[in-house]
């Protein structure tokens, strides 16, 4: 199982050149076959790790040696790392949970910086007593938990010497690190300590991009309060003779239960949760949630409950991402491109979401010939009895045993795929057709909305219902422009200049530069000017390259 854990969230995805990708794929399939098959097994292992971990705020001048010496008094340390987020923090994972208890036994109460404190003890601690005379943490590696600024990424990509390498480089720069994933599970675990006060059997599970393999450093932390363990396995058979049952408070609907649970939990997080700030209860949304910022980790957190369908879509995206390394690379590239052009946004609105974009990439890969990934219906047909899942009347069944999935041989390069992706969506028949990864084929649109992407599990719903015509137009215009830019790049450049720090943007890098297409301009005049200057110099350099070649 360790082997499997290592391959999940692996950071070396795509290090194989595109030509060797068929081979890499088969190697991965073998890996998959001898490990546990489900995302759940991996989640369980990460969760258990998190429960043996603590989060410690450190003075920036803490000596690592002294720090470790003090902590190891309480037991063996498996892993630790430092990171910066409004100050220095350390995540420390002990080998056993007893060590965590021992450390907490040793902890004192805060010296009076506030008049009073809420006496809720948690595994978020502060280091005391380190004097400023301690030697600075010279050799200590400080992990960054945020993603590289776009301009730095553009420079990095410009130094690569093939589009394939650019796509791989982008994926490597943006994907979650092992440390960041640990921190995400630790925040879930800290939150669980609050929720178990009411529901001792509950768990807090991360879902969405924190675990589906498509998460970018800095993405939000989606969490799901799972209360199913409380009722599981009970009421299976009616015992004869006397027995007792629980008296429980009735509610009008599942939704009302979710709302009342989240309302109380939200209040606790707000009133008692160390480091949790800006708590908002958004209980009337389609999917009720509590949103807050966890300051020590810097994560924007969304806590939902009774959200099993979202967990299923997480599992599905994870599966697709594991089937072929090109899936994750393309999703990262498209997500990054979309963010750079304001096609997606952190503010809710008429924008296309990352989830929709991901489904669009999957659909495109199903439409290749031969297809790179199978349809959802095919994955359902491969499912065994243990995979059966019906949630609120929706069929969410699909195979969990990766070894049953036979892939077709498709050796297209990332370069080819990225440019064909833009071409595909530059000319898609949005007005008539719907995107459907269940069938893997365009379907006639059932509703009149600008963009129709069928919800994979709740098939009567459209996951991009929010998108308006203007946003779709921008998306299409940008796909057209990117198709054009890649064709230009192909015609003029044969790689970046690795020796120079100021390599001219080329290939994928040009796609991330501010756009010139109508209606896509930024509001800010100053930025517009920068934009046009950058594009002008870019076009100049392309022209020069052209002249040199001819
Ligand atoms: P980020 O933008 O990186 O946070 O991507 P994400 O995949 O985590 O998206 P988000 O935080 O918006 O949503 C979390 C998860 O909820 C997604 O991965 C999906 O599983 C699910 N989800 C999000 N939006 C929708 C939607 O419109 N319909 C359905 N059915 N599920 C959704
Ligand atoms: Mg998310």
Automatic annotation (TrEMBL):
Organism per entry: Xyrichtys novacula (Pearly razorfish)
Signal sequence region: none
Domain Poly(A) RNA polymerase mitochondrial-like central palm: 164-321
InterPro entries listed in its UniProt record: MTPAP-like_central, NT_sf, RL
An annotated GO BP: RNA 3'-end processing
Domain RL: 38-107
GO molecular function: poly(A) RNA polymerase activity
Superkingdom of source: Eukaryota
Entry protein name: Poly(A) RNA polymerase, mitochondrial
PANTHER family: POLY A POLYMERASE CID PAP -RELATED, POLY(A) RNA POLYMERASE, MITOCHONDRIAL
GO cellular component, one term: mitochondrion
